[in-house]
């Protein structure tokens, strides 16, 4: 079994879609083993997306991620990282497969409803940025 880090982004919390997104996650067989709703600070968003700091959309990305509450989560299951990437769908909702979270709910490549870790190393770092070990049950 494996853990991945998930964020329900501000476009989704704004539209009251937390439960709808969680339903798709649970339907896929992933278990929500930690969850909290927070307002990300600019510093937290900049640290979280540091790998994208040289990209032209970085400023816009940090603005968006701090524009409203997010729900940070740890998901657990068999191949959780790859499975959640599949459930999320392509970064750009225009390319996302039918039934995926981004196909159902995302507004644009920027306002794309969810984040999911892309590898075991990033999952571990991302989980540790937002959760203490004893918060994951
Ligand atoms: P995430 O890391 O959020 O799970 P991802 O791995 O599918 O998404 P990345 O390439 O890591 O995509 O990009 C991180 C995030 O940056 C995207 O989810 C999206 O919100 C934003 N982003 C990516 N490309 C663009 C773009 N061209 N314009 C605006 N925002 C973008
Ligand atoms: Mg990514």
UniProtKB/TrEMBL annotation:
GO molecular function, one term: nucleoside diphosphate kinase activity
Subcellular location: Cytoplasm
Record field: catalytic activity: a ribonucleoside 5'-diphosphate + ATP = a ribonucleoside 5'-triphosphate + ADP; a 2'-deoxyribonucleoside 5'-diphosphate + ATP = a 2'-deoxyribonucleoside 5'-triphosphate + ADP
EC number: 2.7.4.6
GO biological process: CTP biosynthetic process; GTP biosynthetic process; UTP biosynthetic process
Highest taxon in the source lineage: Bacteria
Cofactor(s) listed in the protein's UniProt record: Mg(2+)
Keyword Kinase: yes
Residues involved in ATP binding: 9, 57, 85, 91, 102, 112
Pfam families tied to this protein: NDK
InterPro entries recorded: NDK-like_dom (IPR034907), NDK-like_dom_sf (IPR036850), Nucleoside_diP_kinase (IPR001564), Nucleoside_diP_kinase_AS (IPR023005)
HAMAP family registered for this protein in UniProt: NDP_kinase
UniProt subunit comment: Homotetramer.
The protein's name in its UniProt record: Nucleoside diphosphate kinase
Organism (species): Salinarimonas ramus
Gene name of the encoded protein: ndk
């Amino acid at each position: 079994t494996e853990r991945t880090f998930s964020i329900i982004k501000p476009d989704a919390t704004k539209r009251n879609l937390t439960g709808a997104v969680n339903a798709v996650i649970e339907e896929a067989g992933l278990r929500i083993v930690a969850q909290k709703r927070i307002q990300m600070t600019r510093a937290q968003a900049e640290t979280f997306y540091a790998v994208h700091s040289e990209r032209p959309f970085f400023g816009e990305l940090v603005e968006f991620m701090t524009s409203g509450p997010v729900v940070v989560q740890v998901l657990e299951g068999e191949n959780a990282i790859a499975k959640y990437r599949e459930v999320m769908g392509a970064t750009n909702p225009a390319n996302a497969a039918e039934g995926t979270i981004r196909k159902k709910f995302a507004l644009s490549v920027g306002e794309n409803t969810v984040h999911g870790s892309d590898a075991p190393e990033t999952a571990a770092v991302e989980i540790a940025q937002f959760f203490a070990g004893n918060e994951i049950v």
